[in-house]
Write a structure and sequence with these properties.
Blueprint lengths: L12 H11 L12 H10 L5 H14 L3 H5 L3 H8 L5 H19 L7 H4 L7 H12 L9 H9 L8 H11 L5 H14 L26
Helix pairs in contact: 1-11, 2-8, 5-6, 9-11
């Protein structure tokens, strides 16, 4: 980014963090859950779906199938009916059932605590694994990169990448590990409240003096 004098303006990551910590000091996962398995299932359901919608669906789902043992035995048609409104329900239902089978058969009924093991579960990629590790176990293995984080990281000049895994690597390089979990949740909240995909509220944004794309049309 160039400033008005034509000089390259360095991204002020410390300043960005200061604003975000002031605005969202207690940012946490917005998916309702009571333990690692519920968070895993909810995160699988959140693909291409809002957290608000997922939180409306999961109470009935978890009441009927409270753990991996129960969900592994659930009729696939029943799972599809319970999660239908989240979209892509056939794939998601199969992922819930197969992931539950693996948790029961391979991991003794416990959601694993490593990235490598989580990635063996159907329906789980790095984003889902990072959500579970960070919000269920407090393990900072990486940075959650969803659509909000990807968009804001680019707008703020923290990455030039579009691939989520490359975005994650860029964020891991510039952030202290202690901030990895919180930072993603803070960006999600900021993306929902202020930095909308189509109509970002730049004038009302606390990051406006730090954002290289502030006021850039189509950014």
């Amino acid at each position: 980014m160039n400033d008005q004098n034509g000089k390259i303006k360095k991204i002020d990551i410390a300043g960005i963090l200061k604003v975000l910590k002031r605005s969202y000091p207690d940012a946490t996962c917005s998916l309702d859950h009571r333990g690692p398995f519920e968070l895993l299932a909810a995160t699988i359901l959140s693909a291409q779906c809002t957290d608000v919608r997922v939180n409306k669906v999961t109470p009935a789902l978890f009441k009927k199938y409270p753990g991996p043992a129960e969900m592994a035995k659930a009729p696939i048609g029943d799972l599809e009916a319970l999660i239908h409104s989240t979209g892509f329900y056939k794939n998601k239902a199969l992922s819930l059932k197969e992931a539950s089978k693996t948790i029961v058969g391979t991991f003794g009924g416990k959601v694993p605590k490593t990235m490598e093991e989580l990635l063996t579960l159907r329906g789980v990629a790095r984003k889902t694994a990072n959500v579970v590790l960070g919000s269920a176990y407090g393990i900072a293995a990486g940075v959650v990169v969803d659509t909000h984080v990807k968009r804001l990281a680019f707008r703020l000049g923290l990455t030039k990448e579009s691939d989520p895994e490359k975005v994650e690597l860029d964020l891991m390089k510039i952030l202290d590990r202690k901030d990895w979990i919180w930072f993603a949740h803070a960006l999600v909240l900021h993306g929902r409240a202020v930095c909308d995909a189509r109509k970002p509220q730049c004038a009302a944004c606390g990051l406006k003096t730090l954002c290289p794309r502030n006021g850039v049309k189509g950014a």
